[in-house]
Automatic annotation (TrEMBL):
A Pfam family hit: Redoxin
Lineage top rank: taxon: Bacteria
Species of origin: Shewanella eurypsychrophilus
Domain Thioredoxin intervals: 34-165
PROSITE patterns, alphabetized: PROKAR_LIPOPROTEIN, THIOREDOXIN_2
Keywords, comma-separated and alphabetical: Signal
Protein name stated in the entry: TlpA family protein disulfide reductase
Annotated transmembrane regions: none
Presence of keyword Signal: yes
Length: 165
């Protein structure tokens, strides 16, 4: 019984650490497929409300948030983002992409966390796979021309510490 509890705690720790979704007991290597200076690989989205978002139509800087509603690090990052000045900055567009979440989960999350920026459904990781293989939350900072400025894995107690354009 003691071994079962220890194994369960280890599994939970591995799952919560970085919110990786893997059944392997080995740590997943986080790979990032985009880097500073590249153009963002996707520029149009449809949010949970059916609105088309075209990044090329905005002259603002953008913050793409790749997250999952069930992930404690993502929840912390979204709370921090909602409470931050970034959320009120008229020169920054925030778009959050729910990895493996459906519309219902994202709508509930938006209500529970009082999210006032667009949420995008990515149930099959098609969007996420353009940016990385594992690890959430990820913050992708874009300039006004949709060029990647910085990518951040925003785990930890201060998820927005590295957000600077």
């Amino acid at each position: 019984m003691k071994q079962l509890i220890s194994a369960s705690l280890l599994s939970l720790t591995l799952l919560v650490s970085g919110c990786a979704t893997t059944t392997d007991s080995e740590q997943v290597e986080y790979l990032t497929y985009v880097e500073a200076g590249q153009e963002v690989p996707i520029t149009t989205f449809t949010d949970t409300q059916g609105n088309l978002i075209d990044l090329k139509q905005s002259g603002n800087a953008k913050l793409l948030v790749l997250f999952a509603t069930w992930c404690p690090d993502s929840q912390r990052a979204m709370k921090a983002l909602e409470a931050s000045d970034l959320n009120l900055d008229p020169n920054v567009d925030i778009i959050a992409i729910g990895r493996e979440d459906n519309k219902e989960a994202l709508d509930k999350f938006a209500t529970d966390y009082e999210i006032n920026f667009p949420l995008i459904v990515d149930t099959d990781r098609a969007i996420y796979a353009k940016f990385a293989n594992a690890g959430i939350p990820r913050l992708i900072l874009l300039d006004a021309n949709n060029t990647i400025v910085k990518t951040i894995i925003a785990e930890g107690e201060n998820p927005l510490a590295e957000v600077q354009w």
